[in-house]
Each structure stands twice: as structure tokens, then as C-alpha cells.
Amino acid sequence: MKKSVLALAVLGAFAGAASAQSSVTLYGIVDLNVTYAKAGDQSALLGGNRTSMIDGAVNGKNGSRWGLRVNEDLGGGLKAFAVLESGFDGSTGSSSQGGRLFGRQAFVGLGSNALGEVRLGRQYTPSHEVMAFIDPADKSYATNVTEVVSFNAASTTANRLPVGWVPLTGNRQVNVQMMNNNGTRRDNMAQYITPNFVGFQGAIYGALGEGTADRGQGGKIVYTAGPIGAGVSYETLKGFASGNTYGKNLVVGASWDFGFAKILGGYNDVKDVEDPAKGATRILKDQKAGSIGTAIPLGAFNILANYTETKYTLATGLEPKFYKFGITGEYALSKRTFVYTQFDTKGGDFKDFITISDVNGGTGKQNFSVGMRTAF
Question: DSSP E strands: which ranges in 178-261?
Fold first, then answer.
């Protein structure tokens, strides 16, 4: 029985809306791993360790999820579609993305092969999508180039910098990705995606914000042809209260598949990571990052490796560097199910201050994981 037929049987509420020209597809992923994490020697845990079962969103292939894809043929080359995707923690069953029902994606759109697509709703940002040309496992595993680093102004809390490196005013914490895309997703997003022109495709978007939320805008151009892929994106944020443009974010990535191995690399430059209107409480000004990785197929077994280094410019004027090296092995048991193991280690000016996150349960100065992922 096809997935679309099964989804209609399970989700009877959609059955009345379906027709011969429409389909509803139910899909999902469950990914879990057991991770041993070690904290930095000068962290709140003083080099301690923890073993946790955690969702694949951390140290795994994919965050667990279920979703619905709706497609309708309107005739004349026009189609309507929608995606509703809900993330959850596979180890507890609780909702992810802050408890949102469809926190991963929730959008509706119209499209045609000749004119492109218009999408409205919560979507992935163009910068996040360009990262696929940089990360060997598409922002997954220990090779994840978008891993979040936390800066805390208090000298006694997690992921802190050495005393005096950041302003203590306001006792703020800032969470940023090593290769930053101003956040993986954007709410209230109106996006236009062009048709594919001999391998080239572009997109432009505006995130209208809601209430007092900051606005976002940007776009991308990507090129894919055979073994070659490349992309560039640029995005900015605009403070609702301040009117300042900040988070001026450039991402460049490229990959080449030689058959025996795929080589990937990229560069990220962000000006005004935080809104200057934060004044004396601002922790971060700018950041720059570079990354290089590889994916080596060996039949049912794959080896993935990546090195990412980021230089941060703090509001105090100091410029600490931070790096991460990760390596992963995954073995396919079938087209939908595989097992994996991964290791990563972090270094740089504040490596010894890294603690083990209580939020996601298992990312420290060093991590070793064994896990399994299956999809339907």
C-alpha cells in the first residue's frame, strides 16, 4: 500500500479533501543515540562526564519528526502544496522547537515548472539550505557545522568565557551557531523560488514578523550540475524596536563528488551578530568561520569527517577562536534504517569552559555516540 493511501486511511480528516488529483503523504523519522560527553576542566562540571540517551537532533543523523505533505494538481502546470512537520524528542516523546505543534515546518504554496514557487509560513532559511554544500552529512552528526555555542556573561554558569572577556551587565547568554545562519527557520516567511535554469536556482524572502518580533530578509543562488554543487546566500535581520539592521550574514559553500569521495567546504561572515541597540549588554559583535569536510562511500558503510573553525569578535574587543573536529561512521541496514557511531572534540580559547548541556542532554568538550535511525 502506498504511503499516500495509508496516510489517508489514518488521517480521515483529510480524506474528504482529497481527490484524484491530490495526495496526502504521512512520513516520519525516529533517531536516537546514547552519548558519552565530557566537560571542560574549568567548566561548572570541572571535567566531569555524563552518559545520556538523546534524540538524533544532537549527535545524530536527524531530529525525530513526523509530518504531512499535501499536493494538488490544479491543471495547466499549476500545483498547490503544503507541508506540516512536527519535531519531537524520541527519548521522551515530548514536542521539540519550544513545544510547537508544527515547529519544524508549516507552510502553504503555489508552484509551476515554468514560473517557480511561492511559499508562505514557517520555513528553512536560504542560509541553512546553502549549508548543505558545506556539511558532509547535511548539518548532522559530529560533522555538524551549525552546532550551537553559548556565551554566558556570568563567570559561574555553563559555557562561560574566562572572567573579564565579556560584559557582566545584564548577565545575558547568547547562543550562536559555529557557521551561523541567523537561525535555522524563520516564522511568517514569504519566499519566492525560481525555476531551475540550466543548474541555477535562486530564492528571495521576507519574514514579516509577528507582534514585536524582529524582521528578516535575504536570498540565495545555488548551482548544481552532476558532481558539482555550490551556493551563496545573504540575509539580514531588522530590529522591530530599534530599526537597526543586524545579523548581516554571508554564507558561501561548494562541493565536488569525485565518486570515491566527496569534498565540501565553506565560508561564513556575520557582521553585527547582535543588535547594537543592546548597548552595554551586547556580548557578540562579529564572527567568521571556515569549514572543510569529506564523505567517503564504502558500499553500505559511509565515513564522514569535518573540521570547522570560528573566530568571534566580542564587544570587549577580544577575538577568541573556537574549533571542532568530528568523524562519523554510518552503516545502512536498509534504505530506511541505519546505525551510526560518531566522535567529536572541540578546542580553542575557551574549550576548557565548555560544560555538558542540560537542555539537550549530551554535548560537551568531547562526545562519543552510538545510535540508530529509521524512517517511514
Answer: 185-193, 200-207, 215-225, 228-238, 245-257
In three-state secondary structure terms, 274 is: coil
Distances (CA, A) of 146 to 104, 127, 183, 329: 16, 11, 9, 19
User: Which amino acid, 122?
Assistant: R
Q: Which of 180, 152, 199, 186 is nearest to 43 (CA)?
A: 152
| Count of C-beta atoms within a 10 Å radius of residue 27 | 14
Contact in structure between 68 and 84 (CB atoms under 8 Å): yes
Asked if 320 and 300 count as a contact pair (C-beta separation under 8 A), the reply is no
Give the 3-state secondary structure of residue 14: helix
Task: Please state the separation of Cα 122 from the chain's center in Å.
Answer: 14
pLDDT of 361 higher than 60: no
Alpha helices in the chain (DSSP H): 3-10, 126-130
Higher pLDDT, 181 or 325: 325
Angle at 270 between CA 247 and CA 123, to 5 degrees: 55
Burial letters for 130-160: b for 16+ Cβ neighbours within 10 Å, e otherwise? bbbbbbbbbbbbbbbbbbbbbbbbeeeebbb
The mean pLDDT value for 12-27 works out to 66
- Cell 556539511 sits on residue: 135
d(CA 104, CA 126): 15
Name every residue whose Cβ is closer than 8 Å to that of residue 246 and which is 6 or more positions away in sequence: 236, 237, 238, 239, 271, 272, 273, 274, 275, 276
DSSP-derived 3-state class of residue 34? strand
Judged on CB neighbours under 10 Å (0-12, 13-18, 19+), 338 is buried
**197-227 confidence digits (pLDDT tens):** 999 999 999 998 778 889 999 999 999 999 9
pLDDT of res. 246: 97
pTM: 0.89
Residue 216's nearest CA partner among 245, 241, 242 is: 245
173-210 b/e (C-beta count within 10 Å ≥ 16 → b): bbebbbbbbbbbbbbbbbbbbeeeeeeebbbebbbebe
Q: Poorest-confidence range of 132-146, 204-218, 290-304, 317-331?
A: 132-146
